[in-house]
Amino acid sequence: MPRPSLNFGLHFLRFLSATLALVLLVAAARSATGADVVESLASLRAKADKGDPAAQTALGWRHYIGDGVVKNYAEAMKWSLKAAHAGFAGAQYNLGAMYEAGIGLAQDYAAAAQWYRKAAEQGDPDAAYSLGLLHDKGHGVPKSASEAAKWIQKAAEKGDAEAQNQLGELYSRGVGGLPNHVESAKWYLKAAEQNFAEAQANLAGLYAKGSGVKQDIAEALKWWRKAAAQGVAWAQYNLGVAYDKGESVPVDYKEARKWYELAARQGFAEAQCNLAVLYFNGDGVEKDPVEAYKWFTLAARQGVPKAIEDRETVAEKLTVDQLLAGRQRALEFVPRKTDGAPKR
Fold this sequence. Notes:
The chain has helices at 20-30, 34-38, 41-49, 53-65, 73-85, 89-101, 109-120, 125-137, 145-156, 161-173, 181-192, 197-209, 217-229, 233-245, 253-264, 269-281, 289-301, 305-315, 320-332. By secondary structure, it is mainly α.
């Protein structure tokens, strides 16, 4: 039979904004000082009653997440609003996060943007970043790449690696005009040097294509390797392709299989397809047509054309029992994120 063909297109995906859950985690982390975290509820309340905005902010957040007290969203809003109206940036940011999440109150992007803006105008980098993301999506504010870049850059200039990566993404898409890959590479590099995995992968993509930087596959592999070690699936896939094809490294099917499998287990379809080919041909791994059928099936479910075609080719070579076993393995598959994946 003809050898199933590898799906070799390098991937240059870019990552967008943090999820709402991450927004909340950031707010929780910023809700109080280290001393506030261990301070008794009674002590906090006493300070809050006297008008201490830091205590009011911490007390409001404790009520919001149920830290040492029963969750009470009304109390959370009451104390957060007191501190926010007093001009305390931390409380203003937390209110923005609450409204954006819509947990315990009606989701209101416009209100979220209002409070983020108040905190951002005081120089709060997390608020500036969050406001920029709302502008990028057009949630509660006009959709505007230039406004998004303006606010996200404020956070990026203060060293926020996620903001730096996001700013690189914006420039890669184009801010008020054509993409600016030189500017994009500049911000990706700043974040990558802080070990921000997505930025490392994005920077690698620019080196692989020669966009904004001189094309350098070896440099691309360096940054993809760093990102892959932190669990970025498409970086793992690209490393697999490099070893499979011998791109700036010797052909090494065992190494290709390792990286494909890490990405495939996260549900990355093209890696699943290429891993299936290795199993079918016994390249870098013991030949296993049942395992090949499993991975082709998983990739086919995600619409990879070659996986659909090659799965049928493999199926023709299987016994009924092998075919059933391959289907069962595919049914039992649950994608999982690699430990160590980056978090904000």
